[in-house]
Structures are given as structure tokens and as C-alpha cells.
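Preliminary data (for renewal application), adenosine-5'-diphosphate complex.
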Amino acid sequence: MNSMKKHPLRRKRTQILGSAEPLDMTLMEDSVGVGDLVLLEPLEEEPLLKNLQLRYENKEIYTYIGNVLISMNPYQQLPIYGPEFIAKYRDYTFYELKPHIYALANVAYQSLRDRDRDQCILITGESGAGKTEASKLVMSYVAAVCGKGEQVNSVKEQLLQSNPVLEAFGNAKTIRNNNSSRFGKYMDIEFDFKGSPLGGVITNYLLEKSRVVKQLEGERNFHIFYQLLAGADAHLLEALKLERDTSHYAYLNQKVSRVDGMDDASNFKSVQNAMTVIGFSEVEIQQVLEVTALVLKLGNVELADESQANGTSASGIRDGRGVQEIGEMIGLNSEELEKALCSRTMKTAKEEVVTTLNFTQAQYARDALAKNIYSRLFNWIVNRINESIKVGSGEKKKVMGVLDIYGFEILKDNSFEQFVINYCNEKLQQVFIEMTLKEEQEEYKREGIPWTKVDYFDNGIICNLIEHNQQGILAMLDEECLRPGVVSDSTFLAKLNQVFSKHGFYESKVTQNAQRQYDHTMGLSCFRICHYAGKVTYNVNGFIDKNNDLLFRDLSQAMWKAQHPLLQSLFPEGVPTQTSLKRPPTAGAQFKSSVAILMKNLYSKNPNYIRCIKPNEHQQRGQFSSELVAVQTRYLGLLENVRVRRAGYAYRQRYGPFLERYRLLGRSTWPRWNGGDREGVEKVLGELSLSSEELAFGKTKIFIRSPKTLFYLEEKRRLRLQQLATLIQKIYRGWRCRIHYQLMRKSQILISSWFRGNMQRKRYAKIKASVVLIQAFVRGWKARKDYRKYFRSGAALTLADFIYKSMTQKFLLGLRNNLPSTNILDRTWPAAPYRCFNTANQELQQLFYRWKCKRFRDRLSPKQVEILKEKLCASELFKGKKASYPQSVPIPFCGDYLGLQGNPKLQKLKGGEEGPVLMADTVKKVNRGNGKTSSRILLLTKGHVILIDTKKSQAKTVIGLDSVAEVSVTSFKDGLFSLHLNEISSVGSRGDFLLVSEHVIELLTKMYQAVLDATQRQLLISVTEKFSVRFKESSVAVKVIQGPEGDRNGKLKCKKKGSRCLEVTV
Ligand SMILES: Nc1ncnc2c1ncn2[C@@H]1O[C@H](COP(=O)(O)OP(=O)(O)O)[C@@H](O)[C@H]1O
Ligand SMILES: [Mg+2]
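Predicted structure:
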């Protein structure tokens, strides 16, 4: 997905792939010559070389043959590497950009990561052709594109840092290459399922250890020696007992100590640093350097010929100091070392024989020791690195192998090393042939694809010549080494000559002679093999020794005895107790078996080829030597490669896996396909309407002619995967959103239902409250309406009551404070403040008055009471009846108007028995006969009325009160009254009396009381104007008339009207 970022070129690619055709055109547009030799026309050697040259001269060092990369060494830094280019190539498929090693690395890595196929990258080519550089580029590309992360980065770092260390110890300047790998290296980088590196395993092949003691002219020993001397600080040098000057050391070539453009000192620092990164401890680094120094110092151990007089040759150390120093450094007795160097212990079944070594033998022994120490140190370093980058066995791994092995070598003088190296290259060529040319063509046949065979050189016969178990050169070499008897290189050669006299690829002086050929280049001690890459003449000298690779036991035992842990561990066979006499496998056999393992390993992986070509022998930029390149193209079989490639199919796959991978591109095959695999594949490809030329249906496999079709399919698949991923994402997201939405909706509904419910409840409560309120109001209003009248009247009443009460209160309190005087005669009374109190006021006035009266009465003396009783009686009798009454009221009843007390005469008149006189007054007696009046004194006692004639003082009339029946008076102011007497009484017989008194009221009142007291009878007093008065036996009617007022001052006039009527005018 990451690589899907928008990129202008990416769009271009999709367009290109949309229509399968214009790809080639775009590819060709800005390319020089043809980028892929498959497109070369005509397909001949010359145009091929021309094309390569043209491209090389235009700095296009990479060219394809299908998926095989041809790389020409530019001998200059080209600006086509680095992160920018890595990023570019990682985003594009193989054919979209210019040919590049990154494109090949990308294909390999993606195939490993995405298709789970183990990969191997086979880098072949002559020494100096650029193999090691290519392997480093591949590794750096993979490191850049594979996963990231702290751990991954440290693994990457360790893998990458293994290079400088191995190069320091395993590379050297040769004539052909300033940095030539002097060992073969195969590195398995292991990845996890995601494509992140986990670690790796490095296998090294046959270090060229002879270089340790001797180098060709113009060459150097391994870089590390120079680096150590140049880069180590003084302190370290002193510790290692070394001197900086390389010329001090016999093993270092005196002529060449520096290489142009190579800074040994700074490289030394890098190596130290790299070792630390990989995980070497300080002590380990120190020990490695000590062993390295030991090798240098061994070279300086000078030996002397000490042949004895008896003819036995012997040797000795010329200068003991060197050995002494070595002994000190490795913790070994110098004598012991000297002994090991100069003598040899032969062990037979029964006894041990010590023989001295002659000078040559001693030198040989010393050099052998140095070579062994160094090569074992190298192996140890490789193992140590492996230990650091090792991957746990439990993890499932994908593997990418990178093979950078020494290239085919044809030197002037070729020895065992070249023989072995070339054998290895021969094998690699065989892999190439097997996997590209042979296997491919055979497969077409097997699968029944129409095919015209392309001829190619099959180097199987050469491989056989070398490695055949019985009849191979290596087998014969081993046989010679093991054979008892006199064994030498020449016996070996003789044997070869004998066995291979008829072999087409083997030549020697002998076989040449037999064929009558005369070749001066062929020495007597030489044999020649016609390798796929050319004829190589090998000198057999040293073959036996080198194959034996023997180190005298004394030396290994001495090394084991050293107190140096690393050195000791390098010589495990030196343990004295280990007495096995079994020979270790020979160098040739070892190499053969490791090559066999390598081959097996390579066959199990998907190969990716980088074929490095060296454009010139002089390491010169821009120089293109056609002959040199022609040789290389020939032996690399490039032309055949192109032919097969052109005729053949770039890609094949079993129907099953193919269908599985691409069935998602077909409508009918996706998502389910029930038919057979082949039908399915036909369906898918049919639906994609690919041109029929592009496809071939084999028996079990589908063949696709051009890579671009495959890339087209891959791109389609990639897009389809994205589509499907999008679809899944879409559906998943849709589902997730739906679920989320539903949940939200549910929640929302729940919330809103609660909210609404709550709101409605609140509203309802509010409405209810309002309704109740309104109802209450309405009801109240109605009730008030109904009851208003009651309310009002009541209110009025209450108010009125209240007001009234308060008014009353005010009134009464006011009254209390303002009471009028208690004088009984004071009738004043305040008026009522309000009319409503009138009655009450009157009542109160009355009450007050009565109270005043009562008080007044209560204060009266009994006498006053008597007087007032009389007055009361008078009032009862006369009030309102008699006009003179009012005048009588204020005048007290004095009773005695005559002064009776002081007049004893009068006292006498009343008689004795009568008790006190109630009334004594002068009255007039009207004569009934004539109406004339005469004065009389009237005394009233308790039982009598006594009339006494004033003149005759004793003449008197006594009238018993019991005989007074009635009294008549007028209603006028006069004093006239009549005493009506009972007829039967004695007095009565004289008739009634008509009298006038000035105090008529008093008189009559007293008389009334006296009668009442005396007789318990109420005297009848009638108020009338007409009454009759009995007179003797007759009665006179008296008529009283009211005369004019004030006329006569109380005097009345009586006029007799007839006998029987008397008219009184008053
Ligand atoms: N791609 C390249 N770019 C620049 N220089 C290169 C390249 N490949 C090789 N060289 C140069 O060629 C020299 C030899 O290359 P190297 O890989 O060591 O050869 P080989 O391993 O095949 O012997 C390198 O030291 C380097 O200077
Ligand atoms: Mg190399």
C-alpha cells in the first residue's frame, strides 16, 4: 500500500500496462542501444559486442538478457546509486526503468517476500569484473528496502559490517584488482515472513593462503597487515611488538606497500569499528590482532642452514630475538617453538623418531605454520561473525543467498589454487546452464511445447573431468596423496596423462606429442584443461603438497601449547592426547564437497544471475577491449542465453499455483472455481485477452513468453488486490459504521425517548399544574361569582359591624369621657355623633338620667322620701289631668299653711283623737245654694276631714274619711273640688261639699293617701267639668267653664242657673 503513493510515473505505468503493446517503445526511448539483448537484431556476436560497447561508452553498464543482468565494470563511480535510486527502483517493476542491479535485487527481494521463494543471486565473472561490488550493491539495496525498526537495523548493520572485516582479512591487491577477494563467499541472508532481515550465515571457500608468505610481483599481501601497521596507534604497535614500517617484514612485498586510493590507516579504524558493531569483544579484537602480528613476526624468523659434519642436514634459528618475542607474545617457550620449527617427530605404531629438518624443510614448516595460522584465523573470524548474525533455529525463514566467489582465473603460472577456483567457476557455469539453457529446453520438451532446440555448450564433461569420483582429476590427486610409495607432482601428472590421454578437454605435452601437436606454451610439468571460459594451463608443481595441506604435528602441538586462548583454539588437533592417525580430508576433497553443498543449496533456490564483465585488463575507465569482452561473452554463453531466451518463455508456473495466484483476475474464477486448474488458468488468461503468442499451455505448466506480460499480470493482480482490499475495507467499514450507526441510533432513540418522556412529563406536570391553577381560578371565579353576593353582604356586615363597633366604641368612650354633670336637673346630654346612635343615645340619656335619679333618690332622707311620695302620688293622680298640676310640682307640700303648731287655738279644733294633722289650710266653701263662697279652715287628719268656720272657730264639720266616696275636680287651674259623700253617712245627709282650695293638689293627694291608709280604699278622684253635687235630697249639676285667662286671679264666679244647675266660671 505504501508504494501506492501518487507518482507521475506510476500513472504512466498503469497506462502502459493497460495496453500491453507500447511498453517496448517507451523502454527504448531514452536508452542507448538495446537495454535487453533479447531485442537485439540481428542476433550475432558482433552487434552484441557493439551494443555492449555503445552502452558502456555511454556509461550504461547494465544490460539485460531477460532476467539475467550483465554488469560491466565502469572503473569509476557512477551517479546511479544511493537512496534516491533505491527508492525509484523499489517502486517500479523490472522493465520499467533502465537496466540496473537494483532492479534485479528488487525482483529477487520481492519474489522472496511476496512469493515466499528462496532466492540466490549468483554473481560470476573474472577477477576484477565487479562481483564483490555487485554483491555489496545488492546487499545495500536489500538492506534499504527491507523492514525497519531498531532490531532490524542492528541486524542489517551487522550484516553490512561483515564486509569490511572480511575484506580486510580476505582481500588483497592483485594485478587485476586492487581489492580482489582472495576467498569465495556465499552469504545467506535470512528474513522473516514480512521480509525483515533476521540474520545470516556466511560460508567461505578456500582462502588463498599462499599469499600470506608470497605474493606475485605488483601484488600485496592481505590488506589487514598493511592496515594494522599503518592504522594502529603507537601504543598498540608496541603491545604487539610491531614496527610501523612495512619493509621490516619479510612476508610483506617490499615493492608494493600502498594501493592508490586506499587509505589503510582509516580502513583499519573502520575494521575495528566494524568488528565492534558485529559483536567482537575488546579482548577478541586484541587477540585477533595479536595472531595477525604473530604471522608477520613468523615471517621474520630467519632460519639458518646448520648442516652437520656427518652430513645430516639441519637447521636453526638465526636470530633468537624474533622467536623470543613470539614466545613472549603467545605464551610459549621459545625453545619449544624453535624445536617445533626445526625438527619433526615421526610417529609410528611403536616408536617416536625425531628428525631434524633441513633449511628448506624448516622454511617450509615456518611458512606452512604462518599460512595455517592465518587461514584458520580467517575461518575463525567468519565463524565468529556467523555466531553474531546467527538466527534462532525455531524461526521460519526465507533465505536470500548472495554468492560472490572468485572469478575465473587464467594466470601466467596457474597452480592448484587456480585449478580449484576454475573448477568452482565451471560448476557455477553448470548451474547456469542447467537452470537456464538445458533445463529450460528440456522442460519445453517435457511439457509438449513446440520447440526448436538451441545449441549451447554443456560444460558437464569438464566438470566430470575434474570432479568424477574415480576418474576425476581431484580424485586422482587424492589417490596420489594417499598412495604409499614415492609420490610427487610428476607421478601425478603422469597418471593424468595416462588416464585422460583421449579426453577432449585435457591436454598435456604428452597428449600433444601423441597427437603430434607442438605447443611451446605448454611446459613439461603442465597440463591444460579446456574450460568453458578458455584453456588454462596448470603447473602441477605443488599440487600434492597443497592438496595434502599438511602441517607438521609438532607445530600444531606447539601452537596448542601456547598460552594464547585464540591461537590455542585454532589448533584443536594439537591436543597431545589426540593420537588419531586418520588423515584429515585433503584440500581438494574439502573443496569439492563444499562446492557440492553449495550447488545443492543453489539448486534449491530461485537463481538470479549477475554476469560481470571486465571491459579491459587495465582497470581503466571508458576503455572497451572488444577481444577481452568477446572472450567473456563467449564463455559466459551470452549469445546462447539470448537465443534460448528469445525462443523461449520468460516464465512458467504449474497450473495450480498460477491459478491460485491469478484467479482473482477472472470473473468466473473468483471467488470460487470448481473446474480443473488448467481450465481455470485458460479462463483467467482468456478473460484478460492476452495475445496467444504470449502464452503456451504445457502439460502441467503455463508458459508466458515475455516478462512484460508477467509484469502486466502482476500489476493487474496488485491493483486487483488493492481493489479487493478496498472492497473488504469498504464492507468492513460499512459494517462497522452501520453497527456504530445503529448503536448510536438506538442510543439516540433511547436518549431522546427518555428526554422526550422527561420533557413531556415535565410539560405535563406544568400543564397539569397550570390546569389545576386555571381550574382553581375558574372554580374560584365561579364560586366567587356565585358567592359574591354572600361575600359582599357578609363583608358589608362585617365591615359595618366593625365600623359600627368601632364607632360604637368611639361613641361610648367619648361619652364616658364627656359625661354631663350628675345634677339631676341638668338634662343636657350630648347629641349622638351619628344618627344611628340616636335611639341608643336617648336610651343612654334615659339610663343616665334614671341613674342620676336613682342616685338622687338613694341620697334622699326618709322625710324627703315621704314628701316625694306625696308628690308622686299627686303626679299619679293629676298629672296630665289637671292644668294646675304643673304649677304645684315645684312647690313643696308643706301641709300646714296655717301655722298650726304655734296656734294652740287651732290645735284645739282638730280634736284630740285624730292624731297629727295632715293638712291645715284655708279653703272656701261654695254655697250650693247661691253659689256664694265662705272661708273655712280645713284640717285633714288620719280619719277625718274637719271643716272649721273661721269666724266661729268651733263650728265645724267633721267628715269621716270613710264616708268620702268620691272627689271631683276640674281639669282647669282652679282650686274647685267636690267632696262626694256617702248618702248613708251622717254627714252625708247634708249633701256633698263644694270647696275651693289654693292647694287643691296637695290637699287631694293627702286625702287620697289618708283614705288609702285608713280604709284601704282608693279614693276615686274624677277630673271632670260637669259633675253633680248632692244637696240635701236634690242634686245640683255643676258645670265648670274656663273663663278668660288672668281675669280673676283665682277667684271664681258661680252663677246659679236654675235650681238645679250651677255654672262655675273659673
Ligand atoms: N559498479 C561499480 N562502480 C564503480 N566501480 C566499480 C564497480 N564495480 C567494480 N568497480 C571497481 O572495480 C574494482 C573491482 O571490483 P570487484 O568487485 O572487487 O571485483 P571482483 O570482486 O569481481 O574481483 C572495484 O574495486 C571498483 O574499483
Ligand atoms: Mg571480489
